[in-house]
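I'll show one example:
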Amino acid sequence: MTALRVVVDVGSGLAPWRQVQDQIVRLITRGALTPGTRLPPIRQLAGDLGLASGTIARVYRELEAAGWVRTARARGTVVADTAPRADAAALLRAAAAEFATAAKDLGVDAETAVAAVREAYGPG
């Protein structure tokens, strides 16, 4: 089992289950989690992240429904051999859409939102 580097930001406005799901998808897409890699048991990951077991169970169900992972009683939850391979552009568009929705909900104009992205992106 590979150590799973996932962080939940309770102040982000994005549901914790979604944050965990999105990070696992990105790890699979980047190849940091390869097919056959075993994910931590639900209770362990929930405890590590300070979340309810039901929250992580939902993440694993959603990932399995989308074809990213598969679950077997004996092996636990592992990255699927046939996991979808989303391209970086598609992931970026999805992240941008979520960010734009959050910015609009805050009443922020596009220029301010773009400035926030540039600041977060950092130099270079």
